[in-house]
Amino acid sequence: MPSTAPARLLLLWDIDHTLIETRGVGFAIYQRAFPAATGRPLVELAKVSGRTELDIMSETLRINGVEPTDEAVGRLAAALVQGYEDARDELGTRGRALPGAYDTLAELATSQAVFQTVLTGNLREVARIKLEVFGLDRFLDLEAGSYGNDHQERAELVAIAQQRASERTGAEFGNEATVLIGDTPNDVAAGLAAGVRVVGVATGKTDLEELRAAGATWAIDEIKAVTRLLLARLSTANPSSQQHADEE
Ligand SMILES: [Mg+2]
């Protein structure tokens, strides 16, 4: 690992309603995976917005009358991953990348000062499939990401991603150098609890006012505004950094 890695900004992207929408495919997969894993129909799905999959799976099992043992959760997780694997075409047809997501990730990926990965409630393999289907995986270091099967609490995923990103790059990513980007009050709360800045994007069900009220450092209504926001910040964040000149 290099000991003099350049100062960098770690971007932690949420996936659903920030970068992509499954437009009902995610729910359809749950409806197929749940009986496959438990032998029972899915009567009710727990609220999913902004939560980790470990959290969603446990509650969904419970409210459908199945004890959420490690074994039951593991079976459901495996069925969900298989369900997404089988539904790649369906996801690509019915779902979509959100407007500007591809271009924004692509543009940020050209900056040496930016290191991009995900912080998502999705299971690791499900996250990979969702991003691959829309061609977004090429801009993100998914090994450095943190996922809904890493921890039940979303806020805990921030430190996990920082640690993994440091291991991947040799650079230290403290809270000052970390920005989380997401669409729900849960994303904002997770970032604030962990002590990092949060860009709230009103591309899901939460509007700008609600994102600001939740405490988002910045609230924007389209993903492409992220580039301007972050590159402007980079140009002033580390006056002593060699990256500074690159961003002028
Ligand atoms: Mg989301």
TrEMBL record:
Question: Looking at the keywords, is Cell inner membrane present?
Answer: no
Originating species: Actinophytocola algeriensis
Q: What Pfam families would the database entry show?
A: HAD
Keyword Cell inner membrane tagged? no
Please give a single GO biological process term from the UniProt record: DNA repair
| InterPro entries linked to this entry | HAD-like_hydrolase_sf, HAD-like_sf, HAD_sf, PGP-like_dom2
Molecular-function GO terms, alphabetical: phosphoglycolate phosphatase activity
Highest taxon above the source species: Bacteria
Q: Which SUPFAM superfamilies match?
A: HAD-like
What this protein is called in its record is: Phosphoglycolate phosphatase-like HAD superfamily hydrolase
Q: Print the keywords alphabetically.
A: Hydrolase
The entry's cellular-component GO terms read: cytosol
PANTHER family in the record, alphabetically? PHOSPHOGLYCOLATE PHOSPHATASE, PHOSPHONOACETALDEHYDE HYDROLASE
